[in-house]
């Protein structure tokens, strides 16, 4: 049974397509400027026509409506939004020469769109896409700076050369991390020209704005308490949006004050007449409690005309044959049906095995080394010990000396499980995701000692970093393992990626929305735009059979392990929550 929402969204698609029949929509027919649509075809020949979701949100972005966008990882949200923002008319400031400072006149243009992203590499990925489109239009790169600039914390560069460039040559699109933005706001807020912005796009919004789930029967008092707790840890992004949307917030507060009762106050919203930039927020995991928070608490969202795009919401084929009253699975956030989920358990004695209860391997459609022609003839037995260059890229001599003398925080058998799987199964590029606070350099060091071609993920490195954005490995025939942390992988698009390794249970000690979403985002680095992929989570613990109990009321058997609090159990629960069954990794049968 499908939900009424899924049916409504399907009807919308059908209506859209029949309205535009017989011709399928093109980027141009949605409002993308012809020059950009043409450049897009030059730069990204595989992007032939917009997806149904892009068909929904691009016209809204162009027309200036607020948009809340939720759709699968890897389905083109950020890409489509970038194209739409590029197509928005450039803001020009009427410079009044008579009153201005003639020594340093204000620039005639200002920032049109502000894109807020959670980390540096995503900022550079978006900049790279824009650069390709600019080049596709036949323009030279000096022009790029007037079209897009990145502002991220990079030592003090963002406060020196970054700030100067922003002031003298404001870009059409400014892509920034919250930390760098807040530094600039403290130093010279005027440089950001917030008053003349046309649009603000917050990507991975649920990561940047933390909210708590609102329980159905929770009292107002408890809700208020939770709200105050969150307010004490107000995120930088919240503070930035409070400044940009101060007019909306004022109107929101006034509308609340005018409300006759509590219920009316809850639904009070600022009106569309308030002069403030269009607000766009997107994520594959935009949960209801965040929506409610945005509407009820912030005052940033307009009352009328906000477009809510929820994507296709079609159930993925790999999800368990189960339906909670027709609800779609959280695993729908992963677009591909061809992702294999594996969990390897490392026992105290160092033995490595598949998690108990994993389904027999079914590798149809999932890439592995044997599918890659460049690895044919390679003696797999010798792969793990292939000598590497003796260098440790990105690690300075002092760190190296320290690592050689100190014990690693990583469990050797966990790294060995990753090294072995990488050597035998990865054809080209894999990603290892560590916990947020873990040391990337130390993991790179340890893995290189094990013979793995490991490298810290960094799109700012001109050769190797760029190569991954372009979709080919830096050294063909020599697979690479990119190492990053949970906080730096959201939204990344690595076209060559076939495997994601996850060390430990994502987001720690409790299974809750945050850890489930973290797993979905990490897993969503593969299987993008219909491609296959493997997610291999490596956890330590005891590989026992899951506890099973029988529910008397319904006579059905269900999984229940309330007592075990180890990582194996937590991982089992996360997969349960996203309705995914782990499959065996053949190497560890
Ligand atoms: N219309 C299209 N046709 C073909 N490929 C597309 C299209 N739109 C985007 N893509 C490709 O899809 C890939 C993923 O895009 P993008 O990173 O925007 O996804 P996303 O939905 O933002 O993912 P995430 O939720 O993980 O951030 C990119 O490699 C892009 O080239």
Task: Describe what you observe in this structure.
The protein has 589 residues and is of the alpha/beta class. It folds into three domains: 4-89 and 206-309, Rossmann fold (3-Layer(aba) Sandwich); 113-197, P-loop containing nucleotide triphosphate hydrolases (Rossmann fold, 3-Layer(aba) Sandwich), CATH 3.40.50.300; 334-588, 3-Layer(aba) Sandwich (Rossmann fold). The protein is built from 21 helices and 16 strands. The strands form three sheets. The protein has a seven-stranded parallel β-sheet, sandwiched between helices. The protein has a seven-stranded mixed β-sheet with strand order 9-8-14-13-10-12-11, with helices on both faces. A hairpin with a 4-residue loop joins strand 15 (548-551) and strand 16. The chain is globular. It starts with a helix and ends in a 12-residue tail after the last helix. Residues 1-7, 95-105, 313-328 and 373-389 have low confidence and may be disordered. It binds adenosine-5'-triphosphate. The site of adenosine-5'-triphosphate (ATP) has 21 residues, from helix 5. Residues 44, 46-47, 50-51, 54, 73-80, 284, 491, 493, 495, 524, 528-529 line the site of adenosine-5'-triphosphate. Keywords: ATP-binding, Helicase, Hydrolase, Nucleotide-binding, RNA-binding, rRNA processing. RNA helicase.
Give the helices and strands, then pairings:
Layout: H1 4-20, H2 27-30, H3 34-43, H4 52-63, E1 67-70, H5 77-87, E2 113-116, H6 120-136, H7 144-147, E3 148-151, H8 161-168, E4 173-176, H9 178-188, E5 199-203, H10 205-208, H11 220-232, H12 236-244, H13 246-258, H14 262-267, E6 278-283, H15 288-298, E7 307-309, E8 339-346, E9 352-354, H16 397-405, H17 412-425, E10 429-434, H18 440-449, E11 454-456, H19 464-470, E12 480-485, E13 497-503, H20 513-523, E14 533-540, E15 548-551, E16 556-559, H21 567-577
Helix pairs in contact: 3-6, 4-5
